[in-house]
Amino acid sequence: MSSEKLPFVLPAVFTIGPQMTTLELGDAAKAAVEAKLLLYAKLIAPLLLGGASASRVHDLVKGVIEGETRVLAAQLTMDEIFTSTKKFKQEVFDSVQKELNQFGLFIYNANVKQLVDVPGHEYFSYLGQKTQQEAASRAKVDVAEARMKGEVGAKERTGLTLQNAAKVDAETKVLLARQQGEALKEEAKVNAEVQVFQNAREADVAAAMTDLAMKKADWDRQAKVAEVEAAKAVAIRDAELQMEVEIKNAKLKAEQLSKATVQYDTQVQESNALFYGRQKVAEAALYEEMKAAEARKVQADALFFEQKMAEDAKLYAKQREAEALSLVGKAKADYMASMLAALGGDYRALRDYLMIDGGMYAEMARINASAVNGLQPKISVWSNGDGGSEGGALQQVSGVYKMLPPLLETVHEQTGMLPPAWMGTLPKDGTAAN
Questions:
Q1: Quick check: is 325 in a domain?
Q2: Closest Cα to residue 16, out of 104, 105, 90?
Q3: Which domain holds residue 308?
Q4: Are residues 211 and 305 in the same domain?
Q5: CA 189: distance to chain centroid?
Q6: Residues 168 and 269 in one domain
Q7: CB 60 within 8 A of CB 105
Q8: Is the separation of the CB atoms in 246 and 269 below 8 Å?
Q9: 194 and 228 both lie in a single domain
Q10: How large is the average pLDDT for residues 203-228?
Q11: Per-residue pLDDT at 432
């Protein structure tokens, strides 16, 4: 019966028996076959001993087949069973084989026949009639379509040719675009990996780049200072030469003109020479200040670049340190989880293991030993003779041992901690051990 409560008949023939073949099998497969034969022997033992009827095994296998088939059919609709018959048969075969494994039986062949209607529920018959009607209607539609195609065939051929050509062109462009996209993806992936490697390398050479920038700034400053000094010397020399030229011209004119004119011209030329010399000195000083300002700007840029590279290097180091701490924490968490799983989820056993592995018990023993190191206690046990001299002395020690079980039990009730195995265990009945 399907999930829609529709009954149907599923004729089937199964060839079932013990698995006997062990040829070309490994040792493990042979052992599995022997185990299945042992299960089969246990199944048929009552038959051989006369304790059961011969139809017992047949009824058992038949019940397994019918039960598994009913369970699978109840999960599917009738349409799913009919349209997916092959899948339904395979699921029935697998389910039955899984149940028969516990009896050492093997399905050699399974022949599931066509599904049959139950009298009064002609689902498959109506479904066949529906299929025939749909086929007839489809045939009529096909005839009409063929007639229509015959009438418009020539024009449709031309249109289809143009459409197919356009489709091929479009698919070619799409394929080309897809290939270019894949190439761009691979290139971006490679570029990303190269960028990651370059970033890692840049952090290593940051200090060298800073030193190089400082040295370049110093060299530029020295070169510009030298240029300023050279330009200033040239300007001063130019003024001196101009002054000498003007003086010589004045002397030459003094020889040709009158004394007054010569004196006047000489004074004018000297004034001009003095003005020209002062002007050149002022221009040299201005040029020197401009070059000095440029040198200070270059030096400030180099210092800013150095600080920036140092900060970037510190940031990269912090990031790497954070990643390392994250990996260490994850490794510790995985280690703790694996240790807890290996110990069966026992947190107390894990705690004892960690204390032993960390050397805590050894450290406690060392601290206790150092606390009493150097002490030489003198203990005298006095007895009044009750129970003998030896019995009186050992009675104190016996009292101490009797006190330990209640003490350990109290600690266990309050803290949940158990004493180590070498110290002793609590009595199961909760009373102090004598």
A1: yes
A2: 105
A3: 206-333
A4: yes
A5: 18
A6: no
A7: no
A8: yes
A9: no
A10: 79
A11: 43
How far apart are alpha carbons 133 and 24 in whole angstroms? Answer: 55
Residue ranges of the alpha helices (H) in 50-77? 56-74
Report which DSSP code applies to 3: T
Residues 276-293 pLDDT 10s: 888 888 888 888 888 888
pLDDT digits (tens, 9 = 90+) for 23-54: 566 777 777 778 888 887 887 777 776 666 66
> Taking CA 390 as the corner, what is the angle to CA 384 and CA 392, rounded to the nearest 5 degrees?
40
pLDDT of 381 reads 55
| CA–CA distance, 339 with 331 (Å, rounded to integer) | 12
Confidence of residue 137 (pLDDT cuts 50, 70, 90): confident
- Is 227 found in the same domain as 199? no
Angle, vertex CA 58, rays to CA 53 and CA 64, nearest 5: 130
What single letter denotes the amino acid at residue 362?
A: A
User: Does residue 354 belong to any structural domain of this protein?
Assistant: no
Please state the pTM of the whole predicted model: 0.30
Residues 62 and 179 in one domain: no
State whether 29 and 66 are in the same domain. yes
Cβ(384)–Cβ(392) below 8 Å:
yes
**Lookup: tokens for 43:** 């199944």
Residue 177, in any domain of the structure: yes
Can you spell out the DSSP letters for 334-379?
HHHHHHHHHTTT-HHHHHHHHHHHTTHHHHHHHHHHHHSTT-----
Cα 145 off chain centre by? 58
